[in-house]
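Entry type: protein chain
Record version: 2
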Amino acid sequence: TTLYCISNGRRCGGSVMLNFVTAGLMLTQGFLKSKSERSEGRRKANYIRAMAQYNANVEDVKAKSIEAAMRGDIPRDYKRKRALTEKQRASVVSMGITRKSAMPVLIDQALEAEMNIQNKIRTSMIKAQEARQQGKTIRYEGDMQARAAVAQGKAKGKQSLMQGFTSAVAYTGQGLKGMESDTPASKWWLN
């Protein structure tokens, strides 16, 4: 194709045409790169969210594991406590100690065993809650990082679009400058 000036019908130089073609290419490149940058931001955000979800699920499984272990340990601890109490009673009876004198000792030992069991339950519940909270924190941080990745992709996309537009304007200006100065820009056409 050749670019002709309408006012005088003369042919414009090849560099003028090249400038207009380059302007179009720069604008297209800006659009395509913008779309690519935005897609990259979304892809990165999806990856970050998936990793955060995985890590949070690991913490949730850890919490469930702690609770399951607690549910298994507590009945065994109570069984041991009952066995120890029966053994102590048998020991007291076999030694011929009266119940009234041995009662404070037995009560103290039973209370200590119960406190140990309750402390074990409390510790397990705290660990499980900490694991759940860690999972929530991981999800939240992942979401924030994903939002930042999307925003960064949008910003890069806008920057690419503006660079493409700016380059297109610059090349268009060079093309118009290359045309005859007395020919208005509205009076040329592409043949």
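Comment: Residues 14-95 form the longest helix (82 residues).
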